[in-house]
UniProtKB/TrEMBL annotation:
Residues 275-307 are annotated as: Leucine repeat II (LRII). This is Nodulation signaling pathway 2-like protein. A motif (VHIID) lies at residues 227-231. Belongs to the GRAS family. It holds the Pfam family GRAS. Residues 406-479 are annotated as: SAW. Keywords: Transcription, Transcription regulation. InterPro entries: TF_GRAS (IPR005202). It comes from Digitaria exilis. It comes from the Eukaryota.
């Protein structure tokens, strides 16, 4: 099934290189006060005589100003007259800059112009200009996030994306968004179950990722006595129910799931892991499938001990789904993955990733990243609108946007760090494994069950789900070089 070609979503062309900031420009409409109290438009061209007279006056003013500066250096800095004079000059300069800024903000009235200016201001750490731009954005997109059938007629998808971008930019300049206080980090899956179920049932993203990864595991372990998966982000364990069903249909070989996490896991994550263990155990019992569940700390000592205990116990597969992680957690998880693979030397490594945050991508400068982020989520939102609205579930779009897309945008904008190279720009010690023709065909068939805008791109060791030819979610398969 070929990918259909459709017009691309409206995109905001963020700059891709560090360019000189353009949000403090001299307005050509600046009104200049004359000595006699009259006002003169700067666009009005003076006569030759007036121009010559003004040139002489300007030269005299410059000479007088230079002499004044020299005189000021020679006089005492404590002179009250000079202090008042300096304060007056500073007040006039501030008023002039304020006038220029107000005129600029009147000219930059579109969302695209304001967002570009806001991103540049934040990248340049110009909090004053960034705050003024974000205030202007607030006036344009006030109340936008509360999507409903009534509000949909007066707001566009770009308005909704701009709202979350503005929140992310504001958190970035204020420093409020930190790992200890994740104000915009994606909420725990337990608090967004309805939105997650909508994504799972009415869009292909979750099904595509899980089915593609599980098929690769089944094919890699077809001759093994049991299947042992080490999951670095087990969550609620939703991915493993379909795999367990397939194993039960093909003879019922033992399935061993190890939930791996680091020492910094919080109480909510521990509770979620416990709930996953209970649910999967009950499901395995209903299938009559031999099932074992264990946990593992991602420390060097525990990993080496785990490796020794697994000798002769069947194939070990490392699985890592980073699509629901906050940005900083994602970067940390990617680094942990590499260390885990070096010690465990698994038979296969399965990665489920948002295309924008692939482990082998280099990290671009902030402005360039924001442009890519906009394009990525514009495509995501457009595809979800098509899936939910065409299926008669348009009322759920607001919930999905509020609890999944919106927090992800805010978190990425607020937390992104343009490091030199990615956490592992090159996956040292791993090689891509070819994905089977059956797995590719399964992915294309699944994409075809939903909107015609979906398609699949197959690269070496990677299968990506696309919307209008733009990859959004990918599954990649790797193996250690020594295996």
């Amino acid at each position: 099934m070929e990918t259909m070609s459709y017009p691309c979503s409206p995109l905001i062309p963020f700059p891709t290189q560090h360019e000189e900031s353009s949000y403090l420009l001299w307005s050509p409409q600046l009104v200049i006060p004359l000595e006699n109290g009259n006002m003169c438009d700067a666009d009005a061209g003076p006569s030759p005589d007036q121009q010559q007279q003004e040139d002489h006056e300007l030269m005299d003013m410059m000479i007088q100003e230079a002499n004044g500066l020299l005189l000021q250096d020679d006089l005492s800095s404590g002179d009250p007259f000079l202090a008042c004079f300096d304060q007056g000059l500073a007040t006039q300069e501030n008023a002039r800059l304020l006038t220029i800024q107000e005129e600029f903000m009147e000219e930059k009235s579109s969302l695209s112009d304001l967002l570009i200016a806001g991103v540049r201001a934040v990248e340049a750490q110009d909090s004053t200009s960034a705050s003024a731009i974000l205030s202007r954005l607030d006036g344009l997109i006030h109340g936008v996030p509360y999507r409903s059938s009534h509000h949909a007629a007066v707001s566009s998808s770009s308005d909704h994306l701009a709202y979350y971008f503005a929140r992310g930019l504001r958190s970035r300049i204020s420093g409020e968004l930190t790992e200890c206080h994740p104000a915009a980090a994606p909420p725990a899956p337990a608090s967004r179950t309805p939105a997650y179920r909508m994504l799972q049932e009415l869009s292909p993203f979750i099904k595509f990722a899980h089915f593609t990864a599980n098929q690769a595991i089944l094919e890699a372990t077809s001759d093994d006595p049991c299947v042992h998966v080490v999951d670095l982000n087990v969550g609620e364990g939703v991915q493993w129910a379909p795999l367990m069903s397939d194993l039960a249909r093909h003879g019922g070989k033992t399935f061993h799931l190890t939930a791996a996490d680091d020492a910094g896991s919080d109480a909510a994550g521990a509770h979620q892991t416990t709930a996953a263990e209970r649910w999967l155990s009950e499901f395995a019992e209903s299938l009559g499938l031999p099932f074992q569940y264990s946990s593992l700390r991602l420390s060097s000592e525990d990993l080496h001990g785990f490796t020794a205990s697994c000798n002769g116990g069947g194939s070990v597969i490392v699985s890592c789904d980073t699509t629901e992680k906050s940005y900083r957690s994602l970067i940390r998880l990617q680094r942990q993955l590499l260390g885990t693979v070096k010690i465990l030397q698994p038979k296969l490594v399965i990665l489920i990733e948002d295309e924008l945050f692939r482990i082998d991508r280099n990290l671009a400068p902030f402005a360039e990243f924001c442009g890519e982020l906009w394009q990525h989520f514009a495509a995501m939102l457009e595809s979800l609108e098509r899936c939910l609205c065409d299926g008669g579930y348009g009322a759920w779009l607001g919930l999905v946007e509020k609890e999944t897309l919106g927090p992800s945008i805010e978190d990425a904008v607020g937390q992104y760090e343009p490091l030199t190279g990615g956490p592992c720009a090159e996956l040292e010690g791993l090689r891509a494994c070819e994905i089977s023709c059956f797995n590719v065909a399964q992915g294309k068939m699944l994409a075809g069950l939903f909107s015609r805008g979906f398609g699949v791109v197959h690269e070496e060791g990677r299968l990506a789900l696309c919307w209008n030819s733009r990859p959004l979610t990918s599954v990649s398969v790797w193996s250690p070089v020594s295996v």
